[in-house]
Write the structure tokens for this entry.
Amino acid sequence: MKRRIALINLVKRLKVHFPIQFEGIDMDSVEFYIDVTNPQNRIEIVDIIDADHNRNTFRKIVWMILNNRTDTLTYRREGKSVTAMKFSQKGHPNTRIYCKDIPATQKKKRKVVMARVFRNKTTTPNNKKNQEDIDAVINYEYEFFKNKDEAKKYREQTG
């Protein structure tokens, strides 16, 4: 069964609040989603990206994604089609949001699905538990909809 997702409109919100930082960037080249298959997972992801101490880091990560960049401190590839958003502020848990990164095609935009949270990361390289999370995200399959009507029909069919 394919997993459920929700499109989030964060890019336009960031452009309104930080117009200079995002000036000249193609804001429509990437779509951001949250995996909502597990409601608790959705709540955790939203709590992380909305937390005051993570806002600057998250804004930097979005900028990096829109510019096709990575770095080892905040956003990098962890496995085939999986990236990690890294949040490690002093006094707060070292947290990762593992994302399914689906590349763009000629007809479709790049999609970044924030899929799974891992808190209190303490090891480098990834330990067995981290690798299990990464492998799980690699195998996730998502249903993307052309419009809101298709998404609504899917929700009605699957409950």
Notes: Residues 113 and 156 are 22 Å apart (CA to CA).
